[in-house]
Amino acid sequence: MTQCTCCATAGQEELASRLMPMVEKYRGKKGATIPLLAEIQKSFGYLPEDALHFVAKALDMPAAELFGVATFYSMFRLEPEGKYVIRLCRGTACHVQGSALVGAQIQRYLGIPEGKTTEDGMFTLQYVACLGCCSLAPVMMVGDEVHGKLTPESAVTILETYRKKEEGR
Amino acid sequence: MQKTIVKVGMASCGIAAGARPVLEELQTLLKGREDVELREVGCIGLCFHEPLVEIDRQGKRVIYGEVTPEVAKQIVEEDLGKNAPLGKHIIFSTEGDAPENAMLGKQVRVVLRNCGVIDPVKIDEYIEHDGYEGLKKATTSMTREEVIKTVLDSGLRGRGGAGFPTGLKWKFAAASKGDHKYVVCNADEGDPGAFMDRSVLEGDPHSIIEGMAICGYAIGADQGVIYCRAEYPLAIKHLNIALDQARERGFLGKNIMGTDFSFDIYIKEGAGAFVCGEETALMASIEGQRGMPRPRPPFPANSGVFGKPTNINNVETLANIAWIINHGAEAFNKYGIGRSRGTKVFALAGKIVKGGLVEVPMGMPLREVIFDIGGGIPGGKAFKAVQMGGPSGGCLPESLLDTPVDYESINATGAIMGSGGMIVMDETTCIVDVAKFFLNFTQNESCGKCPFCRIGTKRMLETLTRITEGKGKDADLDLLEEICVQIKDGSLCGLGQTAPNPVQTTIKYFRHEYEAHIREQKCPAKACTTLIHYTINEKCIGCTKCAKACPVGAISGELKKAHVINDDVCVRCGQCIAACPVKAISVE
What we know:
heterodimer, A: 2 domains, four-stranded mixed sheet, 7 helices, B: 23 helices, 20 strands, 40% helix
């Protein structure tokens, strides 16, 4: 018996075992693209290109449709992210209270521009629209924790505590 | 004996300010106290005093602000132990003077009626506060037409921004023929600076479910969808719990209240796209596609989600519904002026003393909202502008502060009511920079369908950037005004049609600031970094603190001797100013 060529590599087999349950869960359901992508991202931490091609094939839909949705919404990432994602709020209230200066200082401290991940894989810096904590402006989230009333200096101090916590392990 | 209720504000804002350790401390200290009930509640709106703890003795209420675990311990020992309220930390009291009595006293709470009062994940507390009475009244004693008429008569208009009469929208959806109909709750609160929907979803999720079910009954729908942005995880958690409870009690599902009306709701999480607040883009997103708007007609009432008749209302609109059915159209209609009836929730933020959520009758002058309720500008600075309506709105100057907040009056100024974000700016905020900030936002969020919006916002952003860098030309203002008109005319949806508003209003009311940037290469607010220079004056004592604080090593000098800033290296981050003990750094 000849083996299916699409699963010829070990990587493809692993992809299949992780992705097929999700594919089956959403097969034939209306409006499933966004929850399906969200589930893939939850499992892999991001949307690997291979995974999207695999799913498109399995669901018999153009890969462009999946990539189209994945690149439209800001929540989806096509690259892996760091252990801690820093979400710096760039909403109006935060802007008026000086979040641009906070962002510039974080970029200097981490040595990365917005949207990128540090070389050690510790931090990813993202600018987000509004976290809805306007009275604590300027605000950032590190992982799931919210830090408010930031100054450029205090933002760096906070990030240092995360770094120390990791080094202490 | 009735229990004393201790409420801790556990909305996102409370948690961010440190409410969790306070709650844990109270849980430990109050263990075994039969006479006290500890309750986790939503946001009462006094965000600037978070974390908050309220003691409620049969309606006699005291609210403590800026509570730490230590203060919580004192509250338990003194207030709950010896019935002796702490002098310090009291911000509101029904029993005597307190700093925020006036702020809360001026408000009328319809939308926020339960926020900060009930535990949002306990359906019995919602029911105790007239919960699901509106649904019961509608389904068992009113016809569909009577429900729609009541909403029409109340004068309620869409609180998401456009202000379309809600009853009329329902009437269209009810008249539309179809085997299935949808009720969609737009909970994609994307306006930066507005957070009232988050507060209601987190603090009173059942009011949204009830509002949707009443709408479902009125228009003949069987399916509800709540489209909620994924950035609000606590809201989604509370909604899911509330939906399960409502199903368990028969407020959702088959044959609600023993009638032939059946209705259920599911949640659809957004994935981060501002344009999805636009109703046709939102429907595309529910269907799993890129959230891009399409032309109307067909209107959602005729062909909406999956081609079925659909009624879409925003969170704040739906939160009014049960109250209106319960109390009648007149009770709602008595608040407000002109064609704007009822109350409106505003999110006060920016350069304001009392940032938070306030709900006031429509028609209150802006000045009263910002100064009497919001406490004005902190630090003795001068008021410059209030920004209303987010990226679709505009900046209003001091001279327009007596404008009443109603749809027509606000529209007449060039701003819009929008979802109710009010960002206050003082003299240190550069108005051109604010316009640039909003254009950067709309340029990023434009879905790209209409060329005028896609390319026009990009060109405007480039022009504004040029002006803030001192490279602007006199002709740039004419250019901006021309592009504004073209984008408005050439865009399909509300995002494009309103994207120029921040630029148009700032040119209209603050033209002199633009001109200062262009003609004198000066930023009057001293905020645009390429137009300002930091220098160290003769007050310098040579303490070296500024040199240590500088992140780019631009400051040099020996100990106890005057320091110097290298202007070419300086990034104008302001950290030296914060570090200097003698105010020796000036900005020109």
